[in-house]
Amino acid sequence: MSTFNVPTREEVSENNQAIFDNLNKALGFVPNLYATYAHSDTALENYLNFSNAKTSLSAKEREVVNLAVSEVNNCIYCLSAHTAIGKMNGFTDEQILELRAGEASFNEKLDALARIARNITENRGKTDAAVLENFFSAGYTKGNLIDVISLVGDKTISNYIHSTTQVPVDFPEAQPLETAIV
Q: Which of the chain's termini has less CB crowding within 10 Å, N or C?
């Protein structure tokens, strides 16, 4: 099997070099997964534009979806990254574990969001009617639903890239959910 290197700035296109420079300024480093997108001359820019697009979901709500989807897709890279980002958005370690499991006993609205994100991902978009009704009953709109589905797609792209490339995780590594709950 081929192994995937994490390309350095010198190994990517000029366009990607500029993106690396911007990521370094904003984050202090270029995450390995983002660097992996740069094997393509266009994928990194396209992904960042999609990932950073306007949405009706708050940053906290986005992390709910990111954590639930990444758990279903068993992506250690994204679970690790979004555990760190979830903490920056005010979630506790215990809350993050719940969100990864697709629930949120600590907040009814976020519980509906976590459940629908998990359900959409597990069922490949064939969302259970009761889960969908619960989502709307919690106060979400049809527009929010479309944004959730878009975010499920966004996160699934990264999950699949990591699952295929297995580039090193450069965030504090998240514990497997079963281990973390015990």
A: N
Tens-place pLDDT, residues 3-13: 899 999 999 99
Segment 74-101, tens digit of pLDDT: 999 999 999 999 999 999 999 999 999 9
Rounded-to-integer distance, Cα 104 and Cα 96, Å: 9
Contact 76, 169 (CB under 8 A): yes
Q: Are 51 and 63 in contact (CB under 8 A)?
A: no
CA–CA distance from 27 to each of 12, 20, 144, 162, 166 (Å)? Answer: 19, 10, 28, 20, 22
| Structure tokens belonging to residue 49 | 């534009």
Task: Tell me which DSSP letter residue 22 carries.
Answer: H
Q: In the 8-state DSSP scheme, what is residue 177? A: H
Instruction: Annotate 52-115 with three-state secondary structure.
Output: CCCCCCCHHHHHHHHHHHHHHCCCHHHHHHHHHHHHHCCCCHHHHHHHHCCCCCCCHHHHHHHH
